[in-house]
Specification:
The chain has 389 residues and is of the alpha/beta class. Helix content is 34%, strand content 10%. The protein is built from eleven helices and nine strands. Strands 3-4-9-8-5-6-7 form a seven-stranded parallel β-sheet, sandwiched between helices. It has a two-stranded antiparallel ribbon with strand order 1-2. Helix 8 links the parallel strand 5 and strand 6. Helix 2 crosses helix 11, helix 6 packs across helix 7 and helix 9 packs parallel to helix 10. The radius of gyration is 20 Å and the shape is globular. InterPro entries: HDAC_classIV, HDACs, His_deacetylse_dom, His_deacetylse_dom_sf, Ureohydrolase_dom_sf.
């Protein structure tokens, strides 16, 4: 361990940090990276009246109505929440509202040069695949797009941290798996998966992480960020015939499973079950980050797969059951999915997880008092993860 002084405080760095993998940080910047993690406000407090479902009312994107012309359903996240609320499974006071990621938070995952490039409207236009953004000033793109994405990032960090407290967590947004330290693409501007995993590893809250990605697209963003990092095991099940076809990023994939339009439901579930069982038997993870994209649904114009809605629901149940059987905390992100029907399927899947007893949702009773975010931080209870030194 090494010691550093900051503001008159003396703190021991987390054990094992000296050998941590930092793709672009110089050694002299490791202290600042640790302190950025320690002082971040993205780790939420949670009361006993709340469940570890993370959602912010401003997740949805509204851009003067122009978002309707983009293939991505920009109201998906809010629609999922509204269905869960209508079914009496959650209420505003029982879900966790994440904080917006600050620039200092984002620098844990991104280079300054990349974050500065987002001031260019044409860079945002390319990432969001909206050509008209080239003529929009930064304050517009920041207010209506980037800020909302930063809330999603906060949601992913919160979900990963809460999973260690409650054994499960679901961020109704996030999963921007095409964004890396120095690039964005495919509607993914910030590397929320990289950021969350790196924070937990840096603080020694976890030692090893399994990223299970079942989005139809390859998760090339975080894969590029974790090339050579043995603490992160990546099981990526994707269609190799579609975007992004990133052969460099494939170097980081620990176990790669190819699926396409010819992969039917029964075969898909069999492949998922057998590969996940093998991985959990070989790699003792302290956390599963589950990138649960629904663009593998039949009819999706970009995923180009043929899975039924029943398969999506069964898929999520299978993964959460495996996590429980292996006593491993799991954080789920909703990631891709481009049809208007996706929100209902995601909500039905979450409801099924609750019905099966794999998660525990909560709704407020008339006597329940609203929760305020300044409640005390709960103690870490996950028996897998080591506390920070």
């Amino acid at each position: 361990n090494f010691y550093c002084l900051r503001g008159g405080r003396r703190m021991c760095a987390p054990s094992g940090m000296e050998g941590s993998f930092f793709p672009y940080h110089e050694d002299v910047e490791k202290d600042e990276l640790m302190w950025a993690c320690v002082e971040s406000s993205l780790f939420p407090s949670i009361s006993m009246a709340q469940c570890s479902l993370v959602f912010h009312p401003e997740y949805d994107i509204s851009f003067f109505g122009l978002e309707k012309y983009h293939p991505f359903d920009a109201a998906k996240w809010g629609n999922v929440y509204r269905l869960l609320e209508e079914w009496g499974l959650v209420s505003p006071s029982t879900v966790v509202h994440p904080e917006e990621a600050t620039r200092r938070d984002l620098l844990i995952a991104h280079t300054p040069r990349y974050l500065n490039s987002l001031y260019s409207p044409c860079v945002c236009a390319r990432i969001f695949e909206m050509a008209f953004l080239c003529i929009m000033p930064y304050f517009i793109t920041n207010k209506y797009l980037l800020r909302k994405m930063r809330l999603h990032v906060g949601g992913t960090v919160a979900a990963c941290r809460l999973a260690l407290e409650r054994n499960w967590a679901i961020n109704l947004g996030g999963g921007f798996h095409h964004a890396s330290a120095n690039a964005g693409g495919g509607f993914c501007v910030y590397a929320d998966v990289t950021l969350a995993v790196r924070m937990l590893l840096t603080l020694n809250l976890v030692r090893r992480v399994l990223i299970l990605d079942v989005d139809a697209h390859q998760g090339n963003g975080y894969e590029r960020d974790f090339i050579g990092d043995g603490r992160v095991f990546i099981l990526d099940i994707f269609n190799p015939k579609i975007y992004p076809r990133d052969s460099k990023a494939e170097e980081a994939i620990s176990r790669m499973v190819h699926v396409d339009a010819d992969t039917l439901t029964d075969r898909y579930l069999e492949m998922l079950d057998s590969n996940l069982e093998t991985v959990l038997g070989e790699f003792e993870a302290d956390l599963i980050v589950y990138n649960a994209g629904t663009d593998s649904l039949e009819g999706d114009p970009l995923g180009r797969m043929q899975l039924t809605r029943e398969c999506i629901i069964k898929r999520d149940e299978l993964v959460f059951q495996a996590a429980r059987d292996n006593a491993t905390p799991i954080a789920m992100l909703t990631s891709g999915g481009y049809q208007r029907s996706n929100a209902e399927i995601i909500a039905e899947s979450i409801k099924n997880l609750h019905t099966r007893g794999l998660i525990q949702l909560k709704s407020a009773t008339p006597a329940a008092a609203p929760h305020h975010h300044h409640s005390p931080q709960p103690q870490h209870t996950n028996h897998h993860a080591a506390p920070p030194h």
